[in-house]
Amino acid sequence: MNIFRNPVILLVLVLLAFLLFGANKLPKMARNMGQSMRILKSEVKEMKSDGKGAESAKATKNSDAEDDESAVEGTVIPQSENSANSDSEEQRSK
Predict the structure, then answer these.
(1) What is the pTM of this model?
(2) I want to staple 25 with a disulfide (CB 3.0 to 4.6 A). Which of 21, 31, 33, 44 is the partner?
(3) pLDDT string in tens for the chain (94-residue length)
(4) Does the residue 85 lie in any domain?
């Protein structure tokens, strides 16, 4: 933007901010803004490192599944009628 290249306009904006917020609040606002920027940068950095870790873990999981030939197949055994009846009787007694 060409507006911020002119030093007079920048000076007017600084004076306007000084008048609106006062001398006491400006340093606090600048400090809070700096802390917010640091937190944002650290969160972005953490998200990037988490994304790389998740991708490498996913790749490792896929390669382990392909290499594992000793996988076991299982079957589901239906619940016997006796145990199903005892469960329903317990619920009725409550």
Answers:
(1) 0.38
(2) 21
(3) 576 678 888 888 888 888 887 878 878 888 999 999 999 999 999 999 887 766 665 665 555 555 556 667 778 888 876 655 555 555 566 5
(4) no
